[in-house]
Amino acid sequence: MKYWLMKTEPGTFSIFDFEKLPNQTSQWEGIRNYQARNFMRDEMKIGDKVFIYHSVVEPVGIFGTATVIKEAYVDYFQFDPDSKYYDPKATPEKPIWQMVDVKLEEIFSQPITLKQIKEIRALSGMGVVQKGSRLSIQPVKKEEWDFILKLAQ
DNA sequence: GCCAACGTTGGC
DNA sequence: GCCAACGTTGGC
Fold it and tell me: How many Å apart are CA A104 and CA A20, to the nearest integer?
């Protein structure tokens, strides 16, 4: 089983939006970066654990956890000219982008903020504290996962 | 709102 | 294949 961090801008989708959805499950559409797509396509498996990370809007940080419940499949928004995720280069015959489904697991009573993460040496290898890191899906080490979960208790 | 850092595009 | 220009991300 692998561990991940997935970024979202709460103005678009926040961890609290899961609760409005059937089965507290959301498709993770709109990933338009090849490296992030490859993580989903090649490595994400059912049962993998995911940190839900809010970017841009204060407080920035990890707000809770989710589980992968459906492995990568075609993100159909790439074909929709009215979608902001539209990609004119993609066709149903040759799709480019994929998405997974994730189900909410836990919302932390207090988010683990980026500020906190930066202050903790054990978390200094995490993608979100690397300067200039813009990857919207990042692998997380088991030790980092465990550390943050403990912190969130 | 600013702007550095980054990924992508497209002309050559 | 190079690389300048451009658009986007995301912390502050």
Answer: 11
Query: What pLDDT, in 10s, does the model give residues A40-82?
Result: 999 999 999 999 999 999 999 999 999 999 999 999 999 998 8
Residues of A (23-82) placing their beta carbon closer than 7 angstroms to any atom of strand B are 33-35
Residue A122 CA to chain centroid, in angstroms? Answer: 21
The residues, any chain, with a CB within 8 Å of residue A153's CB and separated by 6 or more, are none
Query: What are the two backbone dihedrals, phi and then psi, of residue A64, each rounded to the nearest 5 degrees?
Result: 170, -165
The answer, as to whether pTM is greater than 0.85, is: yes
Round to a whole number and report the distance in Å from the CA of A153 to the C1' of C3: 49
- Which domains, ranges and CATH numbers included, belong to chain A? 3-71+99-145 (3.10.590.10)
How far does the CA of A149 sit from the C1' of C8, in Å? Answer: 31
What confidence tens digit (pLDDT) does each residue in A130-150 have? Answer: 988 889 999 999 999 999 999
How is residue A60 annotated by DSSP?
Answer: P
